[in-house]
Amino acid sequence: LTDTLTLVLLPVSALWLLPQGVVARWACARACPPSCSCTPERSCSVLCDRAGLADLPKEFPCEASAINLEKNRLRFLSERAFGTLPSLKSLSLGHNNISFITPGAFKGLTNLVDLSMAHNEYISYLHTRTFTGLRRLVRLDLSDCNLFNIPDRIFIEQTALKELLCFQNNFRRIPGAIRGMENLTHIYLEANKIEAVAYNSLLGLSSLRYLNLQENRINVIHDQAFQDLVQLENFYLNDNLLSDLPGLAFKGLTRLKMLNLGGNQLTNVSNTWFSDLVELEVLYLDRNQLVSIEEGAFENLTSLITLHLNSNNLTSLPFRVFQPIYFLGHLFLFKNPWTCDCSILWLKDWMENYKLVRDIPCASPSSVAGLDLSMVVFAKVNGTCIDPSELNLTTASLEVLSTTENRFNSLISKLLHKELREEMGNGTESLRNETLLAEEEEQMSAGVRGPWAHSYGPLLYAPAAGLLFALLGP
């Protein structure tokens, strides 16, 4: 109150004698628009979000450094809509109903650095001169609008632009307006309808470090389409329609740290794709249709820490393919129809030694189907691994042999029993011999050879022999 009274009593020519903070607080408070609030600092922020505004306020504090007009009902921006605000650095117009922006609407905002117009579903068109006067703009957010394209020369004055956010629009191609913007470091184009990356789509983006093209409809990438992205570190190409890539698709991307190719339709990993990616740390190849990986595909990935190969159609992972990256930190292999034979024994040993991979369910052979690789026991004969399928076959053969032998012994016993009864007659002695024979038969069934085997051996080879072979069959 004291400061305000003092300012009222002093002439304008004497305001320079007061501390600058006092003047700024008074000026911001005096010019703060209705339905808005202004923070008290010297470079004040004007907060008009959720104020139900259908039109822009007529005046803003000249000292304002930030204006938030989000979540209102604004529909139209006229020329010089904000007047002259030399201190303004940040302007937020997101979540409104803006449908038309007059060319030159932002004139007078000569020092604006950050402009957000995201989530305005009625913006479907931008004039070439929409951003005239914003020569110091560094960050522009046009996400979740209804843009089908933007003019090629729309950013002719925005040479300082570093971050461009245009995700969730209706672009069918990468906007030509970004070509040659050598200061751009981040481009967000995910969730559009882009169908191809042409050889000239990304020309001149020599400072780009982050590029997001995920969740589009990309099915074609031209050879050397990424040749100018020499500083690129994070690259998202996941969830597109790629079934193949040019042989030298990522040539020159020596700074790349993360590459996401997941959720495409790739069936094979070429040994030429990743040859230049010597600094790559994370590689996603998950959720594709991979059935094979060429030898040497990972040969130059000497910095790789994490590899995602889960959710594919891989049945084997030969050691010679995997050997160059044997010491990576995380390997994801689940949701593949693995064949758990001796060719994958090295992987089981690696799992046990390093404890860095798990969940490798076996689909075949049938003897181990459903088991995790960690539970499969590989037998060895003279130091040579035996596949579970061969081991199962050997076991089955032994069981058949054992069953045949038991059947043979049982038949011998029955035939001997019949012959002895015919020889011995019906007397008391015969009964005693039948009892003895029953005991001997029990021993025979248990695999024990009784003393009668020598005495009655001729009975087997004489009248009983023909019957025996008839019963056993071929």
From TrEMBL:
Alphabetized UniProt keyword annotations: Leucine-rich repeat, Repeat, Signal
Matches recorded under InterPro entries: Cys-rich_flank_reg_C, Leu-rich_rpt, Leu-rich_rpt_typical-subtyp, LRR_dom_sf, LRR_TM_domain-containing, LRRNT
Top-level lineage group: Eukaryota
SUPFAM superfamilies: L domain-like (SSF52058)
Domain LRRNT: 31-66
GO CC terms: plasma membrane
GO biological process: optokinetic behavior; visual perception
Residue ranges of domain LRRCT in the record: 336-381
Keyword Ribosomal protein: no
Signal peptide: 1-24
Classification via Pfam families: LRR_8 (PF13855)
PANTHER family: ANTIGEN BSP, PUTATIVE-RELATED, CHAOPTIN-RELATED
Name recorded for this polypeptide: Nyctalopin
Species name: Tetraodon nigroviridis
Lineage: Eukaryota, Metazoa, Chordata, Craniata, Vertebrata
